[in-house]
Design brief:
heterodimer, A: 337 residues, alpha/beta, 6-stranded mixed sheet, 4-stranded antiparallel sheet, 14 strands, 38% helix, B: 281 residues, mainly alpha, 10 helices, elongated
Chain lengths: 337, 281
């Protein structure tokens, strides 16, 4: 038996299989040629040939508008959606081949409040620990510990219906982490949260990075992806348009400043005059005005304002390029619906 | 939020973890359901006891007292006929209430079953856990109802068990069938249609389930006697009749056992398949 095993290991074919199953050494999530078609009707291609690699301890963002295929991709990685083609390997296990093994290594926070409403806040954590094989004593201690760390101890005996949106979301993240998963999936974690709760959740995610947890989060808030993710994949219509470090993506625009002009009228003449200005790299019409991309810093702004004044300039903003700019540049559309 | 630092020490090598096995997850879910049942025990007793209590009280206590008592065709008291029927109804009704309703809501409205689906066991096992726990709850309901139907009637109730093995088998089948039926209904019925389900499934199931009359006595209405055979409750009532009140007319043992086993198997397989289809797309 031992001889056979050694021979298999040496055979090039076996090595290849091993590499395919485990991805590259450092990748915890490895997605190759992944597609999902919902037969419908209507027939919908939600994911259309996606390739992604997420490294250990990386915080990775899937950024795109609603309906882009983010949630379907997460659904496949978390064993809940069967792919039509391609494969997804999470924590070294093919999700279609051994979903139970995958579930042991992952924590999932969906975009809905899925807390068990028949159980208290404490019980939600305690029972989750029991589901993952902890015996009563350690599960009790883990639940207490998580309540303290997520500042929910005062609400231990409350039912989930009595929690605010921010607290419920904190509890869901605490629950997803209770069994110490190696990968955490956060699907639109801050949708519908107030700004303060959103910031609190961002801090939790930043701490996870420090603790070595791999995080895959989906969002349609570009500031969120920008603030949290080391790399983002911008996806639209089920395809990855671009995948890189947010700073590199923004640098790739070739502009340092974005000037948004809110105008009464947009004429070709004005656009021509703006384009002729030094440092202006791109002028594009947007709803209610023009977006002007400039290579230099603020220096070019007075000249742009001067040209625009004759066209009924109502408002003007000067910003650094954001991931939204990247998205618009790629798709010609705004990210928000 | 410095408190969250060290939430994730990536060191699962501590002894706090048992093995995250499917069995541990299954047991965890039983513990969850038991906690919820214990918390809602008043609700459970209310919905289990009130209806059979009123039924027995009005038909077998008040009616005989005011001179409207029924008797069966062979002279046995209506109270005796009701014992197996009401126990069977309590069992089946509990399966629908304990699995069907919560599942319909957890699937359709609140999605709170998510955490159990992400536990480290196959999703079909989550469905089986629902059935197993519901079967236990159904047994409890049947046992709670028995004293009511035995002690309240003003007329004589004649119950004697001559074949305990048969009673155990029929009760076990009844409880599993109850959980399986609950699973099927929970997967099929949308939460906003629960009221409709009671009107078009539960009420006909009860009235045409040989609860209030032995199946053999339907002989004069032959077409009805045939039609009710699609109702699995018929076999449970007949089975309990054979086990508890053997002097009443009842179906042959092979007939009700065979049909009950078949109904159980069909409902369980259908329920698990529907469940998995709802959960994995």
């Amino acid at each position: 038996m031992r001889l056979v095993a050694q021979r298999q290991y040496r055979s090039p074919r076996f090595r290849l299989d091993w590499l395919v199953v485990n991805g590259t050494d450092s990748s915890v999530i490895s997605i190759e040629g992944l597609s999902k078609v919902f037969a419908g009707p209507p027939r919908v291609t939600a994911v259309d040939g996606i390739d992604l690699q997420v490294a250990r301890a990386e915080t990775f963002g899937l950024l795109g508008p609603n309906g882009a295929g983010k949630t379907t991709t997460v659904g496949i990685c978390t064993t809940r959606i069967r792919p039509t083609a391609g494969r997804a390997v999470v924590a070294g296990v093919d999700v279609t081949r051994d979903p139970v093994a995958v579930k042991r290594s992952i924590g999932v926070v969906t975009q809905f409040n899925t807390l068990d409403r028949a159980c208290t806040v404490w019980e939600n954590l305690y029972l989750h620990c029991r589901f993952f094989g902890m015996s009563a004593g350690p599960a009790r201690r883990r639940a207490d510990d998580l309540l303290t760390r997520f500042r929910l101890s005062e609400h231990a005996a409350a039912l989930p219906a009595q929690l605010s949106g921010g607290m419920a979301q904190r509890l869901q993240v605490a629950r997803a982490l209770a069994h110490r998963p190696t990968v955490l999936f956060l699907d639109e974690p801050t949708a519908g949260l107030d700004p303060q709760s959103r910031l609190a959740l961002w801090e939790i995610v930043a701490d996870l990075k420090r603790d070595g947890v791999t995080v895959l989060l989906t969002t349609h808030y570009m500031e969120e992806a920008d603030a949290l993710c080391e790399r983002v994949a911008i996806i639209d219509h089920g395809k990855v348009l671009v995948c890189d470090d947010p700073a590199k993506l923004k640098r790739g625009l070739g502009a340092e400043t974005v000037v948004n002009l809110h105008l009464d009228q947009v004429t070709d003449d004005l656009q021509g005059r703006l384009r002729a200005l030094p440092a202006v790299v791109k002028v594009e019409p947007v709803e209610g005005g023009l977006r002007v991309m400039v290579t230099a810093g603020d220096g070019a702004v007075p000249a742009i304002a001067h040209e625009a004044l004759g066209s009924g300039l109502r408002d003007m903003s000067v910003n650094e390029p954001s991931l939204e700019t990247v998205f618009i540049n790629l798709t010609g559309r705004e990210l928000r619906e | 939020m410095s408190e969250t630092t060290a939430v994730r020490s990536p060191a699962p090598a501590t002894s706090e973890f048992g093995r995250p096995t499917a069995r541990a997850a299954f047991v965890g879910m039983m513990i969850r359901d038991a906690r919820v049942l214990r918390r809602n025990i008043g609700e459970f007793l209310g919905r289990t006891l009130i209806q059979p209590f009123l039924f027995v009280f009005v038909f077998t206590y008040v009616f005989p007292k005011i001179g409207q008592g029924f008797t069966g065709s062979s002279g046995e008291s209506f109270a005796t006929i009701l014992v197996p029927g009401l126990v069977a109804v309590a069992i089946v009704f509990t399966g629908i209430m304990a699995v069907g309703l919560p599942l319909s809501i957890e699937f359709g409205a609140t999605k709170e079953i998510e955490d159990r689906l992400m536990a480290p066991l196959p999703v079909w096992a989550v469905a089986i856990e629902k059935v197993v726990f519901a079967a236990g709850q159904s047994l409890l309901a049947g046992l709670c109802v028995f004293p009511l139907v035995y002690f309240i009637p003003a007329t004589n109730v004649s119950v004697h068990v001559s074949n305990w093995a048969l009673l155990v088998i029929v009760m076990a089948l009844a409880c599993i069938l109850s959980g399986s039926l609950g699973l099927v209904l929970g997967c099929v019925v949308r939460p906003e249609k629960i009221g409709l389900m009671f009107a078009i499934v539960v009420v006909p199931l009860t009235f045409l389930g040989c609860v209030y009359y032995p199946w053999a006595q339907l002989a004069p209405v032959r077409w009805l006697q045939v039609v009710v055979l699609i109702n699995p409750l018929v076999y449970l009532c007949e089975g309990l009749r054979a086990a508890l009140t053997p002097e009443l007319p009842h179906m042959a043992t092979w007939a009700f056992l065979g049909a009950a086993v078949l109904s159980c198997a069909l409902l369980l397989v259908a329920g698990v398949r529907l469940f998995v289809r709802r959960v994995i797309t």
